Amino acid sequence: MIPAPFSYYRALSVDEALDLAAEHGEEAKFLAGGHSLLPLMKLRLALPEVVIDIGRLADLSHIRDAGDHITLGALTRHHDLEHSGLLARELPLLACAAGQVGDPQIRHRGTIGGSLAHADPASDLPAVVLALDATLVARGPSGTREIAAADFFGGLFETALEPDELLTEIRVPKPAAPRWSFQKFTKRAIDWAIVGVAVQGDAVALVNMGETPLRAAAVERALADGAAPRAAAALAAEGTRASADINATRDYREHLARVLVARGLQEAHARA
Amino acid sequence: MKVEITVNGGQLATDVEDRMLLVHYVRDVAGLTATNVGCDTSSCGACTVLLDGESVKSCTLLAVQADGHDVTTVEGLASADGQLHPVQQAFREQHGLQCGFCTPGMVMAIVSLLRENPHPTEEQVRSGLEGNLCRCTGYHNIVRAALAAAGPAHPRGQDEDRPGGGVAP
Ligand SMILES: Cc1cc2nc3c(=O)[nH]c(=O)nc-3n(C[C@H](O)[C@H](O)[C@H](O)COP(=O)(O)OP(=O)(O)OC[C@H]3O[C@@H](n4cnc5c(N)ncnc54)[C@H](O)[C@@H]3O)c2cc1C
Ligand code: FES
Ligand code: FES
User: Fold this and answer.
1) Chain-chain contact of A5 with B18 (C-beta, under 8 angstroms)
2) pTM value?
3) How many Å lie between the centroid of ligand 1 and the Cα of residue A35?
4) Most buried in the list A14, A195, A205, B153, measured by CB within 10 Å?
5) Across the strands, what pairs with A171?
């Protein structure tokens, strides 16, 4: 399978990437690691006329301690998140989840920015940044803006980004509570989660339980009201809109959400 | 677009179509046909090569993305006098292949894995090969080959100052 013809441009700076995006508008797509975009282009489900390669923007690949939060460049690869000593200390939830994305080859190419911008509800990192209350930083023709993770995911493969906006940075507050867990249920090793759960403190986010990553609001409310973890986990499917597909019915996904939230809360508590 | 890619140590400058995949560049432009196309959907790992020393699936990369970089295929592992790379030698000794279709990708995935983790546990080898499928061997001998190539683990801590130690590609 070979992608349909397109024109390839390589951006060597953020400004150049933004200029190219402004010039080519809706016809253009940014290419980061290419591990979501290229498979779609090979299947001809994506047919961009222009591809703007941002993969060489080295200044967008970094993991930094900024005092009360950690900043991550959008081009930071899953592999770098997985092996970062700083993240192992400060954001182990993110390091752990990144290490479960696909397989080593995919993690050598795929980036956190690409994963968030692609906004596949079955992907792991969107739910993780949602649980961590991250802020996403985007740059466009009219400057820089900050978008809360809770406002970023609009629908299936839809985000708050405009086509000419580049996601540049992710800012993650250092969690107050050290309790965390990442639960991913798959049938085969490299698959996307049938259902996944990210727990940080009393925040609980769900992978693949709707058109976007979701916070398990009913679970969080119950925990805040003093419910025991097991009783809170029983509410995990409330307010979700899981789809049915070849891997699972909606009922089965709801069951998995309850079981995985219970396991996640239990593991998180064991880490306290 | 004109690309310059170093393939197995030799530099190659060619005009390629923007949409050409790296695996087709390796097979059809560089003429190195050991790297296979299996699933063509980044699942099976048969097309695994090293890009700047790290394993990647060449069916999911454009040749233009590798412009200016180093690509290593299984043909580039043995030394000039024909001496096999330790991972290749271990595949031979441990019977790490049957039909051989997955082998070039498996070998490259293991070379990359041992670079990052020179003395992995069996569990680390198994999860490190999660992106490579084999329909024949049942994996046991492939895992044995990876562990044999790594050699016995050094006492704890000894490897810390030697990133990339162990197997040198
Ligand atoms: C076989 C396979 C298994 C996988 N398994 C998993 C899994 O288990 N869990 C998981 O979470 N993911 C999985 N993935 C997806 C993987 O994580 C991708 O790497 C990731 O989703 C996309 O990142 P990328 O850098 O490759 O983005 P690309 O493919 O380059 O881009 C994806 C989209 O985002 C846009 N984009 C990229 N970067 C930016 C930016 N900085 N600003 C604005 N827009 C941008 C692009 O235009 C494109 O539309 C898998 C992929 C494959 C091929
Ligand atoms: S052919 Fe590339 S992963 Fe299967
Ligand atoms: S040896 Fe036949 S597929 Fe692995």
Assistant:
1) yes
2) 0.95
3) 5
4) A195
5) A71, A135
Pocket of ligand 3 (CB under 6 A): B 97-103, 134-137
Residue B165 domain-assigned (yes or no)? no
- Percentage of residues of chain B with pLDDT beyond 70: 91
Task: Find the farthest-apart pair of alpha carbons in chain A and give their distance in angstroms, rounded.
Answer: 58
Distance CA B118, CA B153 (A): 8
Question: Looking at domain A7-53, which CATH architecture does it have?
Answer: 2-Layer Sandwich (3.30)
Domain end position, chosen among B53, B76, B99: B76
> Do B66 and B94 reside in the same domain of the chain?
no
- Torsion angle defined by CA atoms of residues A242, A248, A252 and A256, in that order, rounded to the nearest 10 degrees: -80
Range of the domain at B101: 86-160
Residue A170 to residue A133: CA distance in whole angstroms = 10
DSSP state of B51: E
SS3 of A161-220: CCCCCEEEEEEEECCCCCCEEEEEECCCCCCCCCEEEEEECCEEEEECCCCCCEECHHHH
The number of beta carbons lying within 10 Å of the beta carbon of residue A70 is: 23
Question: pLDDT > 90: what percent of chain A?
Answer: 97
Residue B110 contacts residue B124 (beta carbons within 8 Å):
no
Q: In what order do the strands lie in the sheet with A7-10?
A: A7-10, A50-53, A28-31
Q: Is A264 exposed, middle or buried (0-12, 13-18, 19+ CB in 10 A)?
A: buried
A64 in Cβ contact with A78 (< 8 Å):
no
State the Cα–Cα distance between residues A1 and A48, nearest whole angstrom: 16
Predicted pLDDT at B159:
45
Ligand number with the minimum distance to the CA of A208: 1
